[in-house]
Amino acid sequence: MTSEITVEELLKLQSGTALEAAVKYTLAQSHGARAEAVRKALDFACNELEVNKHLKQDLSEDQLTIEVCQFMNGLGFQPRHDEQVGGHCDIVVRGKDMFIWLAEAKWHDAYAWLDKGFKQLSDRYSTGVDGQDQGEVVIYCKNSDAASMLDRWRKELLDRNEGVTTSDDANGARLVFWSEHLHSASGLP
User: Fold this and answer.
1) I need a labelling partner for 69 at 20 to 30 A (CA). Which of 2, 38, 63, 164 fits?
2) Model-level pTM?
3) What is the pLDDT of residues 113-150, one digit of tens each?
4) Domain residue extents for the chain
């Protein structure tokens, strides 16, 4: 006997899981919905790294990023590591309607290093056009106080980059903040 369920029922059954993010990405009809699903899948991938951080401390940025890509690939996002998009971008997720989401991953050892990743995303990799205007700096952190490091990074980001504003995560994630600025090439946020 086969049991048929609706997409709505499937999403309800998988609420709060990585599979929910994958289904939402597959069904997304807007760039915003695609970006939100990618961010959620990235959260799950990073959580897997955190759960096993005792085994990951000696991995390179590339090794950690490949693990993130493998996790997301298993969900159907088809991320690419080190793909050419204005340079060697650490994570590239392409989707329908010319959607491109980018991430630059950095082991935290200096704020200038994190700023370099931000500038790579914002000035070199991103086109800044609709559907290609979002991305993340993923910070791998060995610090014992990641919240303090992130607070300092947020201040450093604002000090080092004119015209950037930041905001807290709308869902209340405490180790995430968002930034916005006008893209130098497109002139769009």
Assistant:
1) 164
2) 0.94
3) 999 999 999 989 999 999 999 999 999 998 789 999 99
4) 7-143
